Amino acid sequence: MSAEPASGQHPGTQAQATVSPAGADGRRRAATDRPRADSYYGRPIIAEPVWSWEIPWYFFTGGLGGASAALGFAAGVAGNERLARSAWATALGAVGVSPGLLISDLGRPERFLNMLRMLKVTSPMSVGTWILSASGACTALASSSSLLGWFPRLGKVAKLGAASLGPGLATYTAVLVADTAVPVWHEGRRELPFVFAGSSMASAGAAAAALTPVAQAGPARRLTVAGALLEGAATQLMEHRLGDLAEPFHQGECGRYARPAKALTTVGAAVVGYGGRRSRALAVAGGAAVLAGAALERLTIFKAGFQSARDPKYTVQRQRARLAGATRA
Amino acid sequence: MSDVFELETRSWPGSYGDEAQPRVGFFTDTSICIGCKACEVACKEWNGVPEDGLRFTGNSYDNTGGLGADTWRHVAFVEQRKRVGVGDGAGPGSLVQDAALSQLADGAGLDAQRGEDGFRWLMSSDVCKHCTSAACLDVCPTGALFRTEYGTVVVQEDVCNGCGYCIPACPFGVLDQRKEDGRAWKCTLCYDRLKVGEEPACAKACPTDSIQFGELDELRERAHGRVEELQAAGESEARLYGADPHDGVGGFGAFFLLLDEPEVYGLPPDPVVTTRDLPAMYRTAVAAAGVLAAGVAAAFFGGR
């Protein structure tokens, strides 16, 4: 079928530069003022997600909890019990609030158990629900074992379970958003899991560095710095590859979150990494900054998706480029 | 427990065995749509779809805006000042040739949308595409979305828990959440009517047969013939949208004949089912999780 761009004076080409949605506000248009020819009255093509404020916070708590479980397990193996306790306490808190956030976002919260009717691998949300359920159970056992000394035997197994599932809990949420028609999320699918992994490492390290005496917190500080570096590099790569599609990251509400997110993560990680070696107070201050940066980073990515869904040009441009490429090939 | 590992969501007709019915759908021929909105009304009446807002958009005769939880058929109105080849002086040859083409165009029903001085009015009734590879169905975590024995895609309202995942997954923005009850809603291709051998309400109500219901194979054949007819009559931009089983969603169950680029009607030019990339995305996430785990382990080298 003839899906290739029309030749000659197709009006789509001349209106490409117009950005603001015309007529979306319902104002009367002059008869000569044609609507944008590359869109239907500037209306969005795809539907904006309906997910509310809980979701970016869940991305944050899932990442913090999942990476903390891995840190707690590794610290236990290394014989650093003080650091392990801090990490398991963080994991318990973060993984503990996660189901609440998810259930409260549902349109029919009383039906949340319908999620557990099946395991459906074509749905990252279904896979994630099972990861969260299993890792929640393991983390609860592992943390009570580490902090209170309950179930010493079962605790060992639970720790291994929580530590194996934790990294997946931190990164599956990137697939959750990438498996949609939302332009920046779907086109960022190659880098988003690494952005989330880095941000989760940094936040788990930061929380543990703040909760642990300086002498035992070395690994947590190194994890903070490594995570911040990975997050920064993955974000840069993602924006570079997105090209024109990266525009939403620098505009509107998203732009207002993006800059402080980067600044807080960078400065906070530097403070934890250098100052945290000498002073617990600096570790706490830097750790708080890194955690705030990680939360803002999730909010940035969340909002960028909404902004890219709202303007049809992001949907159309990428698909047109794909069609043009296919015709040339 | 047979549904525990639901790997294959393109499960029609295999999973239905003897109960499988021929795949049905819509062919919406927009070249003969007159914008009467009988389809919108019939759909609302039959399916008990709530009111979707009483507002004035200023966008031609379109006050519905687009498909959503409470709009399962949506008639788009596009006003264009455009030279269209026939009867407007832009024709290829002599007056006699132009006159002959004009007669062909009239015979094909194209005059309905054409006014004086090159103005034309495109009207098109949009609906859920009932994709062969449906992203909404793939991502639904509860199994509320399912493929019927007719190959159509339907939401079971008693299972949907309002997670909202299908909404941004759809490459056409068909689904949306009904604020009053929190669930996702869309066209069912009148599943209840199909069950008793009736055609969907919109197709039944359409006075010009712009909306044609039937078995998909037959509709596709008919549509190809119609495009040839229109092109012979000088409507060089007539094209089918969604009739190709090799497109990004494996072909639409409800496809269209358009007279301009899809984006002019608010449709994506090259829709793709997002789950096509899911195996690669899972691999990336596992790799990132591995990097996370390796990073945690590496942090313990170098003392306390």
Q: For the report, how would you describe the main beta sheet of chain A? A: none
- Give the terminus-to-terminus CA distance of chain A: 17 Å
Distance between the termini of chain B: 49 Å
β-sheet strand percentage of chain A: under 5%
Number of helices of chain B: 8
Question: What structural class should be given to the helix and strand makeup of chain A?
Answer: mainly alpha
Mean of the pLDDT scores of chain B? Answer: 89
Measured as a percent range, the helix fraction of chain A is 55-70%
What spatial order of strands do you see in the largest sheet of chain B? 8-1-10-9
Shape summary of chain A: globular
Helical proportion of chain B, percent range: 25-40%
Query: What is the string of SSEs of chain B from the N terminus onward?
Result: EHEHEHEEHEEHHEHEEH
- Which oligomerization state do the chains in this entry correspond to? heterodimer
Helix vs. strand class of chain B? alpha+beta
Poorly predicted runs of 5 or more residues of chain B: 1-8, 86-92
Low-confidence stretches of chain A: 1-36
Major β-sheet annotation of chain B: 4 strands, mixed
User: Which whole number gives the mean pLDDT of chain A?
Assistant: 89
Please tell me how large the radius of gyration of chain B is. 23 Å
